[in-house]
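so i finally got all the pieces together for this one. its three components total, 511 residues if u count the protein bits. some of the lines might not be protein, just check the labels. i wanna see the whole assembly predicted at once instead of chain by chain like last time, that was a mess tbh
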Amino acid sequence: MKKGAQPIKKRRGILGALALIAIAVGLYWGLAIAPPDAYQGQVQRIMYLHLPSILTAYLSYFLVFIGSGMYLWKREKRDDILAHSAAELGVLFTALTIIEGSIWGRPTWGVWWTWDARLTLTAILLLIYIGYLMLRSLIEDENRAASAAAVLGIIGFLDIPLIHMSVYWWRTLHQPPSILQPNKAPWENVHPSMLIALTISFVGFLLLYFYLLSLRYRFGEMRGEIKAQRLARGG
Amino acid sequence: MTLLKETYLLLWKDLLLELRRRESLLTMFFFGTLLLFVFHFSFDLAPDKIVEMAPALLWLAFLFTGTLGLAQLFNAERENHCLDALLLSPLDRGALFLAKTGFNLILMLLVEIVVIPLFWILFNLHSWNLLPQIFLVSLLGTVGFCGLGTMMAAVTLRARARELLLPLVLFPLMIPVILATIRCMENILRMGELGEALPWLRLLLGFDVIFLTLGVLLFDHVIES
Amino acid sequence: MGPWGFVALAYGIVWGVILLYLISLKRRYNSAQAELDVLSSVEATDRDVKK
């Protein structure tokens, strides 16, 4: 094992442990301590997953953007590995967000799916970054794959505000006002205990995210090292 | 200014090639028309419904036709290592981007000039006076499509299954253009003018400017050999 | 399904999926690590042989 590896593994282990603690506390607070919502009842507790999930996904896509930009600028392998890892995690958390949103929607709106702005937007995000991962897997040359993916990573991220705007306009300008009002925020009066549950949950997700990112990044590095070593031997 | 000059040169080359062989233009034109026929059979439309659905059907037809054009966009360069030759020359890559975008744009506009009136005829629409406005919106939408599409065509150029990958990657990113164009056209057909759809037009314009600029800036990174 | 049912479904799926991803990631990680160890040990033997 190379020289800097041990302390990194140790720090990652601590990160993982902290994540676990935060998640556990968050679970307990979110499910047991925080009161149910006045309008949505117990189902509102799904929001303690949903909001951190989508925020983590956005963070991930931002990292894809940064990694892509840095890679095109400096052409350092590590930025490419970051972008790829962040994209993978982004897809994971986006998929989870959609599942959570759908499950929350069933008792709230009566349907498993609705083309409201939030869900639609999240679905589009998922499609974009699945496309990113597919692009990477379908280009054989590594360097070309990295460049192509980097361009997609930048363009995709910069398109997000435009997609956001157009989907929201579409959904709010043409939707007749309804009693359900799915575009309103999920709660009216925010009990402080709920805020705490949300915050702890968010911290837990963040820590978990960076733990997973660290693992995935190292995996990407190792893959690169393996290729390099194999190449040095001539196959 | 050199950027424009180089763009013009490259564009002229592609147009000359196309003028001689006419393969892209004809395939796109016939494909667009074919789609109109298929739509007519697929959707049993009452006259009032058609006005509602016309923008969407029209734009779907253009989307698929345009994708066809994009798939063929770099065909000329693939033969005889032309792409390598282009890249070795001191031409600005941004010029290559603009030229390719412009070429696909011209092809699509030629198709649209025929297909839109054809649509009016086949689907018995009477609002001929609205065509100029429809063309304008179509033009702006097509510019956005060609800009982003050329980028994505280059990005997927070296990928396996690129004919499938291109739409997969392109269409989600195109959603602002699709929404904006269709909303604008809907309003034009319904109200006779853009009216409250003006914000959509501005969004479309913004999209075009942003992605044409990005294309010029980033094409260098994506088209390397 | 009662309200707690939906909550359980959501939490169950989310943490289940995350766990599965973590397991798959760890597996990929370990196999890469193993391969890397093999390659480095072979390299070390090569060097020793060459000396």
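Residues 1-51 of chain C form one domain.
Residues 3-50 of chain C form the longest helix (48 residues).
anyway lmk what u think
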